[in-house]
Amino acid sequence: MATLSPTSLPNWNRMRISVNTITQNRAKSLRRLLASLRNTYYVDDEVVPISFNMDSRVDAATLNAVNSSDAEPVLM
């Protein structure tokens, strides 16, 4: 904490979490991950943004798992 700037000091204990998932043709693993993220307790019950990175050759099952979640997919 000694190295925090004066502007950062009031927010030293505010955690910001985001999840960036790289996925490709692993729908079962992705559904398991999304279920774990959904059932996790987050400090202050904040919403954790989730983004997905996929190749344009993603299979239909993985794309369906992404589209059934609340997050926005990012096709690369």
TrEMBL record:
<protein>
    <submittedName>
        <fullName>Uncharacterized protein</fullName>
    </submittedName>
</protein>
